[in-house]
Amino acid sequence: MDQDLVRDISSLDLTERVTIRQPADLQSCVNLKKTTAARICVGKAGTRLKTETYLRFRADHAVAMDAVWSEVDEKVVDQLGFLKVHSLCKNKDEYITRPDLGRRFSDETLKLISENCRHDADVQIIAGDGLSSPAITSNLPDIYPMLLDGLKEKGYTVGDPIFVKFARVATMDRISEALHAKITIILIGERPGLATGESLSAYMAYESSTKKPESQRTVVSNIHKNGMPPVEAGAQIISIVDAMMEAKTSGIDLKL
């Protein structure tokens, strides 16, 4: 029965797979592929891609599309104790077509946040689905507890965690203005590419505000199991928090 099943093309490990016919230096190709997620050393069939390469491209593109249109498993944020809110977007279609609505909240939501979350903390942590829901589902259970423990060990006060559905990065500014944390961090799904659909970014800002430019933010990106592992990223984020607290600034003004 198993022999009748079609092989899952997306399960192939491409990091060392060279499909050039009779390469002049196979080991150099293998070494080169280890340094990049680009589709190199794949060969060709005449003037076209080989069937395997083309099918893998289509499969990875499908993963990226699914990452954008899927939903976060809210059991994950529930288990971690996140307050759940949503931006002004009503659904995923509106989220994709109206980025401005993904940056804002209703007055009722801002009141909910203000009444249920700690004010004036040193660090406020937010999670947002962004453009990759699997990034939150896959990485938040590892990175959030590490951040929480590490920040508390450093002596920082940490606000109540908030999960924002249909979130854009700038939602952190509205929450910062409502809760007045010194540093606000949003863990948000990155726009997926063809290498992974689970990549997370951490945007951080000192006294984050809608009155400040985008350059106020410092970012740690490419957080996923095959990029920067969540625990390693958590340690880097904590070191950046230290630097921000000392310099009382963030973004392009922060010298790391």
Task: Characterise the protein shown here.
By secondary structure, the chain is of the alpha/beta class. It has helices spanning 26-33, 51-69, 74-79, 92-97, 107-116, 133-153, 171-179, 230-247; strands at 83-86, 123-128, 162-165, 183-189, 200-206, 218-223. The protein has a 6-stranded mixed beta sheet with strand order 1-3-2-4-5-6, sandwiched between helices. Strand 2 (123-128), helix 6 and strand 3 (162-165) form a beta-alpha-beta unit. The longest helix has 21 residues, at 133-153. The radius of gyration is 21 Å and the shape is elongated.
Placed side by side, the strands forming the largest sheet appear as 1-3-2-4-5-6
* First and last CA, distance: 58 Å
Per DSSP, what share of the residues sits in E-state strands of 2 or more residues?
5-15%
List SSEs in N-to-C order. HHHEHHEHEHEEEH
User: Based on DSSP secondary structure assignment, what is the total number of beta strands?
Assistant: 6
- Structure annotation, total helices: 8
| Oligomer class | single chain
What is the general shape?
A: elongated
Structural class given helices, strands, pairing? alpha/beta
Biggest pleated-sheet summary: 6 strands, mixed
Fraction of residues in helices? 25-40%
Rg is: 21 Å
Topology:
Layout: H1 26-33, H2 51-69, H3 74-79, E1 83-86, H4 92-97, H5 107-116, E2 123-128, H6 133-153, E3 162-165, H7 171-179, E4 183-189, E5 200-206, E6 218-223, H8 230-247
Parallel strand pairs: 1-3, 2-3, 2-4
Antiparallel strand pairs: 4-5, 5-6
